[in-house]
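Render endo-polygalacturonase in 3D.
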Amino acid sequence: MRSSLILFALSSVGGTLAQQTIYGQCGGIGWTGPTTCVSGTTCQYGNDYYSQCLPGGAATTTTKSTTTTTKAATTAPTTTKATTTTTKATTTAAGGTGPACLITAYSQISSAQANCMTITLSNIAAPVSSSINLTALKPSATVIFAGRTTWGITPNSGFRPLSITGTGITVKGAPGAIIDGGGPSYWDGLGNGGNPKPGNMVKIATTNALFSDLYFLNPPTHALDVDGCTGTTFQNIYIDVKAGNAANSISAGKAAAHNTDGFDVANCVNTIFNNVTVYNQDDCVVISDSNNVTVSNSYCNGSHGLSIDGGGSSGTHITENITFKDCTVVGNTTPIRIKTDSGGEGTVENITYENIVVSGVTLAAIDIEQNYGGSAITNGVLVKNITYKNITGSVNSSAKVYNLVCGSGSCQSLTFSGIKITGSSVANTCTNYACPS
């Protein structure tokens, strides 16, 4: 039976919705724009430079924001059987006037973006070599993933399964929804090398957007490429690559999945990650070339940790005003990490790691590598004003607490307080910077 596009009329929305800040900035140091949030949202603190209107509570006009943090979960949430959404039209906080559309076939996606304000993608099975491109969404549109989203097996390193761009948009998952990258069909233990595999499973470049309640399963390699976002919030995001820990028939005894970064964050401003969970085999969250980014209340397992990538092999890279707080990192190599390439240029400044709990660390709990990749130590990237506060937990006996490999004069004003890490039976490494006492 040929699938059809089902349209429903949306009830009208008051004019004030379009006139107020929706998932946009409402406060912060230097902010001179609107400080009033639309009814049903409140101005919520992200960091000192950025607060954002998010769903919950009555409208507020205050510029002073507070936040309540909770300890990151240490167990994975239970998944449920995938279900489809109902076809009844609804109005969301981010939605404007226009129809709500239930999409059940890949061929309908392009038309839906042109005509719909609320789009439910239900059990979409994209054909081989066919990306789901949500790059023509109307401003303030809402996209809901329902059921299981899949792609035909496409062994092509240039293939990007899902791309999302837009302004003021909301992207969320229905209960039990799964976005399935099909990783087991590609994994060979070699990650970006070996057999061709799709690159980043999801590419995201948005302004004043909200991503929430999304479950990503088994990316072939990197999961989310968050590149070029402004004023965007990611909350309640789950990336599950646990299946990749086991070897398969072609991984030569190694973990089948490799290079499965959770969030690759680059060229972003005023962006928030809250309550994200990542089970993977590479960086949990890695941030580069960005300003005013906060990662909070999050859980990482099996990864390379919470990383700053502060200077590539070419050009000048500036990464500043980044905060990691209230996070748990388990079964990892380097939970707290700043890495810069040999010969790189740029600045890593005003970085805070606060209230981080680590365990099962295999290399070093607190790591600075200005010789990333095993290359020569260089000082082209200034690492300055780095705060480590209340870092607790344990490392394996063969792992270090500190591995601070700095270029000559390029690590400045590193502050350590409340560091309580046990288990190490080996000496720390501190090059061109004194080890904390």
